[in-house]
Amino acid sequence: MWKTVLVILCVCYSVQSARYLGLFPTSSGSHYILDFKLMKALADAGHDVTFVSPTKQKEPLKTKGNFTDLELEGFTEKIEKAMVEFNLFDMNKQSFLKMMSSMMSLFLKSTNETLHHPKITQLLNSNEKYDAVIMEHFQNDALRVFSAVFNCPLIILSSLGPNSWINPTVGNPNEISYVRHFHAAGDPREPMTLWERTKNLFFHIIDHFLVLHYSLPQHQQLVNSAIKNPPNIYDLYFNASLVLLNSHTSIYAPQPLVPSMVEIGGYHIDPPKKLPKDLQDFLDSAKDGVVYFSMGSNLKSKDMAEDKKKIFLNVLGSLKQKVIWKFEEDLPGKPSNILIKKWLPQQDILAHPNVRLFITHGGLLSTTETIYHGVPILAIPVFGDQPANAERAEYAGYALKLDYHGNDFTEERLSYLINELLNNPKYRENVQRRSKLFHDRPMTPKDTAVYWMEYVVRNNGARHLRVGGINIPWYQYYLVDVMLLVTVMLSLILYVVIIVVSRICRKLRGKVHHAKKLKKH
Ligand SMILES: *[C@@H]1O[C@H](CO)[C@@H](O)[C@H](O)[C@H]1NC(C)=O
Ligand SMILES: *[C@@H]1O[C@H](CO)[C@@H](O)[C@H](O)[C@H]1NC(C)=O
Ligand SMILES: *[C@@H]1O[C@H](CO)[C@@H](O)[C@H](O)[C@H]1NC(C)=O
């Protein structure tokens, strides 16, 4: 009896445990959460995990498998120095191309910092064995070289849904005719007009050239500078085994996915935990409900323009609801219904039944969490994907939005929007319906993520999932050459027909002429 149990235990253990290397050099709080949660899920499932990132866990984790931090000391400081020129609140005043190019040079720099970090050099020259390398996709393609160095499959995490940056790496179709580019605004349910589709095509062409012919050659240089026998960057780029997407049809409009793309949107959300006592009491005692206000981890409320801070204070102070505001410094003249804190357990607050409204910058994590818990939002988008997220939430009927840079950012407008969201029940009904869809899945998103990462290792890189269209030239992919051939053939046929018809006509005319002449004589 005991022997059988022991054998079963041994079999389970040896079958399951694999070694995963996670490469996540990012100094952004929300990306760190996504990356950390993914790797922790693997360690919880009994795997041996090495987590490369700029920070270290304060306390050792209690996980079933080993979770080893490999801290890149000094990385954050270097990147923050390079970031000084970016005031995130002012970012979208720049033109689209200017913003793109400064973002790209920043990420090129941080990727280079990573590759040349002493600990990474040591890792690259070590004889460690890994069963898979996992990285987040963010203009850091040179990091794919780890999969070639350790000769193991590459798994990519995308913080967005399918999009024109991530699709080519596994040959997923860009549905240009009906899926809006992630920088374009518009109702995702409405078909695009001719002009919108033309713009959409234009955005996709820019992305294609930026990624494949501008960014990748630069990353090849980085690879060459860090590795002895550098592989070709295009071989690395089209070699990914799996792309995990932080999206779901309860959040985004549905899109086709190739078999090596899997949606795990919401996997980072844990079931709610107990709140600290002061917050619990504050929330429990709010008989008119609570408004929760946070601009996320990258944007700091304290950096907001003074006039905007004043508008928020006046409007929030006049509500009969209580307010919890993530604010990073003292706030003189703070009204008595407002509680401020530097850091807040956002998900546990959203889970509280008294929370009636969430005021957010509209980041992807926040909009996902609000769907999980079914709380309507007022979105105040500032830059990046936030305006598009806000617009999507508004079209889905569980949000209203107020552009941070808009001319209509006034006390009256803010007060109107907050009161509409608090008093009209339709927003809550819509978000509760989405919440139901979010939870209606065959497996939790976290279990789905672990299943597929294990699947890739079990099946030696799962190369049978790769589609044939992964790396054929664009003119073949979009049948441009076929259309040209058909056009040429049709033109030829038309040409021949015209020649023949005109000959016959001339001949007929000639005969008539001849007959007329004969008659005269
Ligand atoms: C965890 O680390 C210890 C010590 O380095 C090692 O003996 C053990 O095999 C590791 N566990 C797994 C699941 O790899
Ligand atoms: C990358 O970093 C190395 C070492 O710090 C440096 O020599 C090289 O010029 C950098 N390359 C780029 C493109 O920044
Ligand atoms: C491509 O992926 C396979 C595993 O699927 C790996 O063994 C190989 O080293 C990778 N090649 C490159 C060039 O990254």
Tags for this model:
521 residues; alpha/beta; Rossmann fold; 6-stranded parallel sheet
Helix/strand-derived category reads: alpha/beta
How many beta-strand runs?
Answer: 13
Q: Give the overall average pLDDT.
A: 90
Strand order of the largest sheet: 3-2-1-4-5-6-7
Beta-strand percent range? 5-15%
Q: What is the CATH first-level class name of the largest domain?
A: Alpha Beta
- What small molecules accompany the polymer chains? 2-acetamido-2-deoxy-beta-D-glucopyranose
Q: How large is the radius of gyration? A: 29 Å
Return the CATH architecture of the largest domain.
3-Layer(aba) Sandwich
**The named CATH superfamily of the largest domain:** Glycogen Phosphorylase B
What portion of residues is helical? Answer: 40-55%
- Shape descriptor: globular
Could you characterize what this model shows?
- By secondary structure, the protein is an alpha/beta fold.
- The chain folds into 3 domains: 16-267 and 444-465, Glycogen Phosphorylase B (Rossmann fold), CATH 3.40.50.2000; 277-439, 3-Layer(aba) Sandwich (Rossmann fold); 480-510.
- Helix content is 47%, strand content 11%.
- It has a 7-stranded parallel sheet with strand order 3-2-1-4-5-6-7, covered by helices on one side. A 6-stranded parallel sheet has the order 10-9-8-11-12-13, with helices on both faces.
- The radius of gyration is 29 Å and the shape is globular.
- The relative contact order is 0.09.
- The mean pLDDT is 90.
- One 2-acetamido-2-deoxy-beta-D-glucopyranose binds at residues 147-148, 151-153, 231, 235-236, 239, 241, 461, 463.
